[in-house]
Amino acid sequence: MVVMEKEEIPHPAPPLKLQKPPEPEPRQPDMISVEDVDFSYSAHQVLYDVNLEIPSRAVTAFIGPSGCGKTTLLRCFNRMNDLIDGARITSGSIELDGYNINAPDVDVVDLRRRVGMVFQKSNPVPRSIYENVAYGLRVLGATKKSAINEAVEKSLRAAALWDEVKDRLDSSAYGLSGGQQQRLCIARALAVEPEVVLMDEPCSALDPIATAKVEELIYQLRENFTIVIVTHNMQQAGRCSNYTAFFYLGRLIEFGSTSKIFSNPSERKTEDYITGRFG
User: Fold this and answer.
1) Are 193 and 142 in contact (CB under 8 A)?
2) How far apart are CA 80 and CA 33, in angstroms?
């Protein structure tokens, strides 16, 4: 009698799991404190009664639909909005490490050294890779060649770019890929040793491979810097932030650890946005 082998039925593959947002470290002292802030562009109010405490040495993501005030608040932290006619905080205050950044005696140049910014589109200056990183140091009065060399290498290493460019520092920055240019801009921001780094949609113009490198860099930088990132990409917020703030129509709806915001939000609007019901 021929014994038929029992046909093996393949087990179904386990369901894919979404990457769990990183748990925050034990919360550090707050670096940025936003209290009762209203903000307007001339007669048009765009932020309403925002209260927010951003911890130091962590990545905080701002999410929400377009036009909800995320970038406006981000630009308040280093007073970039001062460059826009009619733009002003109409009430409330913002403190950096306990100091009111809008006080009359604040040195705005020093504030922007302490609070660096990386923009949506990479914006290297039309100079060499080396001079792009050294630019801010020279503006601040650095002249010693050895000190500038050391700072350039340190910043490029921190931006995970040194090994890719160390043999062509005198080449034009425009010869770099888009992702490399964005990391170069991050290195330029880091060269002046800021305490806070603001990032406004830093990956929106990048391909997936370059985006992954920048996201990994952002997560690593939290060990030494306070990072605040504006993103429309909720998956990106989940991958690289410790805390998330959800904004809607100029109001802060909810703030908390990224794991809580994405898995168990307290507000219905937050849940609706996270699950794609609107936005």
Assistant:
1) no
2) 17
pLDDT digits (tens, 9 = 90+) for 109-129: 999 999 999 999 889 999 999
Q: Among candidates 107, 143, 128, which has minimal Cα distance to 175?
A: 128
CA 44 to CA 46: how far, in whole Å? 6
Q: What is the pLDDT of residues 184-221, one digit of tens each?
A: 999 999 999 999 999 999 998 899 999 999 999 998 99
Name, in order, each residue with C-beta under 8 angstroms of 111's C-beta and a sequence gap of 6 or more.
78, 79, 96, 101
CB half-sphere exposure, 115, CA atoms < 13 A = 22
Distance (Å, whole) CA 270 – CA 19? 19
* CA atoms of 24 and 16, how far apart (whole Å): 24
Kindly give the pairing relationship between strand 87-96 and strand 30-41.
antiparallel
Nearest Cα neighbor of 73 from 33, 110, 124, 109 is 33
> DSSP E strands: which ranges in 98-250?
99-100, 115-118, 196-200, 226-230, 243-248
